[in-house]
Specification:
- The chain is α/β, with parallel strands linked by helices.
- Helices cover about 45% and strands about 15% of the residues.
- It has nine helices and ten strands.
- The chain has helices at about 20-30, 40-55, 75-85, 105-125, 140-150, 160-170, 185-195, 220-230, 235-250, and strands at about 10, 35, 60-65, 90-100, 130-135, 155, 175, 200, 210, 215.
- Strands 1-2-3-4-5-6-7-8 form an eight-stranded parallel β-sheet. Strands 9-10 form a two-stranded antiparallel sheet.
- Helix 3 (about 75-85) packs parallel to helix 4 (about 105-125).
- It binds zinc ion.
- Zinc ion binds near residues 11, 13, 38, 94 and 204.
């Protein structure tokens, strides 16, 4: 039997780092036993799968097309790639809707985002894998599409309103906390409201974070646990245990 995992970073863009081996070493030293690597396009999805091949039982791959890449990607090819490979991955992701980009102002672009999110969710639903979902300025549409699909999901880096959070929890979804839980008022309000049993921890690394003054790394997931524990008045060990169990249960790892 596998020894109990201590900590999982549930959302990392491994293609943003030069060497997966360095990340693996850093994580092991920090007590992080697993990392879910998401893909933002076909190439980074491929890289996530490759890293998982090199470090099995440590890197777990997710594949998808991030909404920021929706106009830059051959979506027919992406759909085929996801269909062919999803059964070897722990999740569909990163996928979602983002209406905050300038390029997403036209109705047709938003419609295209929704069309492909629906398609990708259908593929995930067919093989029964969950989704790692991105949503910005589009929570209502995202929640509607994911709920209708019947696919289990984590709304990664959830920073929407608390009333939408309640709908999302009622529908059975998870939310994940990033290092901004140390200082973002909105995210802190959300994380206070969400029960620990529905929270995952992640770094979305590498991403520049004002609070860190640098790009995030998977080891920063330790800070997320500490900040959540402080915010909720819980023991960090308890936060690590429960969020790890949540990630294991969602991704079936
Ligand atoms: Zn991401």
């Amino acid at each position: 039997m596998r020894p109990m995992r201590r900590l999982i970073d549930s959302h990392v863009h491994l293609d943003g780092f030069p060497d997966p081996e360095v990340i693996h070493g850093e994580c092991i030293s920090a007590g992080i036993d697993a990392v879910v690597c998401v893909g933002g396009d076909i190439e980074s999805s491929r890289q996530a799968m490759e890293a998982a091949g090199r470090f099995p039982d440590f890197f777990y791959p997710a594949i998808g097309v991030h909404p920021s890449n929706i106009l830059k990607t051959d979506l027919v090819q992406a759909e085929e790639f996801i269909s062919d490979n999803i059964s070897r991955c722990v999740a569909l992701g990163e996928v979602g809707l983002d209406y905050a980009y300038d390029f997403a102002k036209p109705k047709e672009v938003r419609a295209k985002m929704r069309f492909y999110l629906e398609r990708f969710l259908e593929i995930a639903g067919d093989v029964g894998v969950p989704a790692s979902v991105h949503s910005r300025s589009a929570y209502r549409d995202t929640l509607d599409l994911v709920a209708v699909s019947g696919v289990e999901a984590v709304f990664h880096w959830y920073d929407g309103p608390v009333h939408t959070l309640r709908r999302l929890l009622d529908a059975g979804f998870y939310v994940s906390a990033t290092p901004v839980v140390e200082y973002s008022k909105g995210v802190r309000a959300v994380m206070l409201e969400a029960p620990l049993e529905r929270i995952l921890v992640e770094t979305d690394s590498p991403v520049f974070l004002r609070g860190l003054g640098r790009l995030s790394r998977p080891v920063d997931v330790v800070r997320v646990v500490d900040a959540l524990a402080e915010l909720k008045g819980l023991d960090p060990g308890e936060v690590a245990r429960v969020t790890t169990r949540n990630a294991e249960s969602l991704f079936r790892i």
